[in-house]
Specification:
By secondary structure, this protein is an alpha/beta fold. The protein is built from twelve helices and seven strands. The longest helix has 15 residues. 33% of the residues are buried.
Length: 248
């Protein structure tokens, strides 16, 4: 709110840095820092981040595009149809997710107000700044199905605070199915790619730059600015214990 020039990329960088500081179960790499010196074959990231939530039985591979929505009204329909009302950015996200068995989301960096209501009615959104909405639902706003004058709170109303994933009693027990029913079977058993297993097991100080560069090339990870992995196996196996730890 006080530094209007800060864009989505810088906000994401800050959030992932803070996340890594407070939780050792989180690992991430800033892909753009490894591809910066590459030749023109790297034209820039298509997506803000890929986040793997890893459970003992089920894994959730989420792909995010990020938008900073602060004002009550700010031409949001046009912004969702970026660039130049082509909707190319959103279409790229949806096509990639469909072709690669990922779940597409929008991360809204926003400022809730007294009228803001997320989908979860048990969560006070007053201090929240990061919300997530399924991209297929957001597409309806881009296509004008909710009119051309869409407010910030209209969009936040189809989202949930990002942190809900980690403190909800039904995390890994139907959370996504309950709040994002439009995923339409996108949740399926998925084996972990080698780069995800590597980040999951490697100590932060032991991550090899050479190995990461190999993964980026082999898995075409230059599409992302960040790759993040979070170990939720303890939460999946013992939600009450994990919830108590989170509340502390």
């Amino acid at each position: 709110m006080n530094v209007e020039g800060v864009g989505e990329e810088s906000i994401t960088d800050f959030l992932l840095w803070k996340w890594a500081l407070i939780d050792r179960k989180f690992r991430s790499i800033k892909v753009s820092s490894f591809t910066r010196q590459e030749e023109s074959s790297i034209s820039g990231a298509d997506f803000e981040m890929e986040v793997w939530l890893v459970g003992s039985k089920l894994n959730y591979p989420l792909v995010f595009q990020a938008k900073k929505f602060v004002k009550t009204y700010d031409g949001y329909v046009n912004k969702l149809n970026y660039p130049k009302n082509t909707k190319n950015q959103m279409s790229t996200l949806l096509k990639y997710a469909s072709a690669n068995s990922r779940i597409p989301f929008y991360a809204f960096y926003s400022l809730p107000d007294e009228k803001t209501k997320a989908m979860c009615r048990h969560n006070d959104v007053e201090d929240c700044g990061v919300f997530m909405a399924h991209a297929k639902v957001v597409e309806e706003f881009a296509d004008g199905k909710h009119g051309r004058r869409v407010s910030k709170n209209d969009l936040l109303g189809v989202s949930n605070p990002f942190h809900c994933i980690f403190c909800c009693p039904i995390a890994f027990r139907g959370y996504f199915e309950k709040y994002f029913p439009s995923i339409d079977g996108e949740l399926s058993e998925q084996s972990l790619p080698e780069y995800v297993r590597y980040l999951l097991d490697a100590h932060e100080l032991e991550i090899s730059e050479e190995r990461v560069r190999t993964f980026i090339k082999e898995y075409n990870l230059g599409k992302f600015r960040h790759i993040a992995v979070y170990d939720m196996r303890e939460l999946e196996e013992s939600p009450n214990k994990a919830l108590q730890r989170t509340s502390r």
